[in-house]
Amino acid sequence: MRITRRNMEAGRPLRMLTRLREMFCLAAGDMPRPACRPMSWVASPGISLCGIVVLLALQTSPACAQLTGHGGPVRAIATSRDGNSLLSGSFDTAAIRWSLKTESADQVLRFHSDAVNAVAFLKDGRMATAGADARIGIWTPGRPQPDRIFEGHRGPIVALAESPDGTRLASASWDHTVRVWSLADGTAQVLEGHAQNVNGVAFAPNGRSLISVGYDRELRIWPMSGGTPKLVVLPAPLNAVTVAPDGDVITGGADGKVRFLTPEGEQTGEVEAGVTPIIALAISPDATLIAAAAIRGVVAVIDRKTRSIARTLADAGSPVWSVAFLIDNATLLTGGGDGKIRRWNVRTGEPIGASLQAAPRDPLAAFAGDHGAEVFRACIACHTLSDKEPQRAGPTLAGLYGRRIATLPGYRFSDALKGMDIVWTPETVSRLFEVGPNAYTPGTKMPEQRIGSAEDRRALTDFLARATLQ
Q1: Cα torsion at 368, 373, 376, 378 (round to 10°)?
Q2: What tens digit of pLDDT does each residue of 340-373 get?
Q3: 218-230 b/e with 16+ CB inside 10 Å = b?
Q4: What is 315-376 written as a DSSP string?
Q5: Nearest to 37 by CA among 10, 12, 13, 19
Q6: Which of 198, 181, 176, 82 is closest to 128 using CA atoms?
Q7: Which of 108, 111, 232, 348 shows the smallest number of beta carbons within 10 Å?
Q8: Quick one: CA torsion of 350, 83, 238, 394, rounded to 10 degrees?
Q9: What per-residue confidence (pLDDT) applies to 13?
Q10: Alpha-carbon torsion (249, 254, 258, 264), positive or negative
């Protein structure tokens, strides 16, 4: 986390003398366990004393039922089988194991060199984390480093699924493959066939097949005994998948629709959950409800039996990147673009616990009514307009025009980008969104997205010219 002048001038009480000892224990891995305290002070990798001071400056009054420790969007969350623990992964490269009883962080897992996109509690009590660095870490709670590291993917890993018998772990990657790892020895079976990014993966309840979904609009049902997978092509790119205990398959698409299929891949219905892409799905433990999170911060709670929206949860102003149910079937957790994990009552649609922290400032408030700013709003989860703001998942866009690609100091770019001869101008930015990042900048970590309207692209590039001047 960067130190910003805005944070240092906020004028909030630091309370340093009473908290510094806790901070140093935290950075060393000895986690304090307050009874009910927002954890906005969780240290990020390599944090300095000054960074601790800034984190303390952001601390305000207690806010039960909100877990606030990540320095970037919460990309993945998973709950333990006993309902006592939560595991979260973030764009800030860290994973955190939380106690849901005390609402405190029990362990910060620092291993990945890039965003942690997927997390899972395993049947044997261990944990799995996977990230944009194409690595999987298998952890024993309390140990500072992974017991085992799985490597082999050539692109970001974005989803994990454990087999019902607990012997295998499946991973979905943007290298267009699925891998099925033996948790005993780390050997992997590679499943190839997707033409684009694989975004989701889930085992059938009997473990005999594996379902994967991708940006190529394909849902594939892979027989684990080998052989040709069943291929289903759906109308939109697919971002997430989950499977009910009876084998029914549920997938979420870029068109905002949730689709239901039989275990054999026959489509049985769909629900329009929103107008923006669905990026995360969760099924309640009793399999009666589906939570579908959209990029604009709206979560649709779908009654699985009636195939209708029971209620909608709105986390205004913050994209929701991840969702998970608690074992009571009535509580939903959401991971936000603001780094917070929230609890919701799915029966009423209301948040659980009131936040006493100040609402985050809208970084685009000064550009109200600017069409280019509205086009850019989809980008603010990953990019800042000023280098005075804390870094997010992507590099800051401050001083963008005239800068050669992959040369911004302090940001870890992929090797593929470092070799490209692109200088950012209104024309090159427009081309990026005309053809898409995968085509224009192969090897990028940027999610695939296009802006089809030339007018919208021009509004965006004009806005960036005004907003990113240093």
Answers
A1: 20
A2: 899 999 999 888 874 323 334 567 888 888 999 9
A3: bbbbbebeeeebe
A4: -TTS-EEEEEE-TTSSEEEEEETTSEEEEEETTTTEESS---SPPPP-TTGGGTT-HHHHHH
A5: 19
A6: 181
A7: 348
A8: 80
A9: 29
A10: negative
Angle at Cα 114 formed by Cα 214 and Cα 180, nearest 5°?
Answer: 45
d(CA 314, CA 244) in angstroms, rounded, equals 25
- Cβ atoms within 10 A of the Cβ of 441, count? 20
Q: Please state, in angstroms and rounded to a whole number, the distance separating the CA atoms of residues 349 and 305.
A: 19
Q: Which residues, other chains included, contact 452 with Cβ-Cβ below 8 Å and sequence gap of 6+? A: none
Complete DSSP assignment for 53-82: HHHHHT--S--TTEEE--SS-EEEEEE-TT
**Angstrom distance (rounded) from CA 248 to CA 260:** 7
**Domains in the chain and their CATH numbers?**
62-351 (2.130.10.10), 365-467 (1.10.760.10)
Global pTM reads: 0.67
Query: What is the Cα 98 distance to its own chain's centre?
Result: 17
pLDDT of residue 11: 32
Amino acid at 444: T
The overall longest dimension of the chain from CA atoms, in Å, is: 64
CB 67 within 8 A of CB 352: no
Helix, strand or coil, per DSSP, at residue 419: coil
DSSP state of 104: E
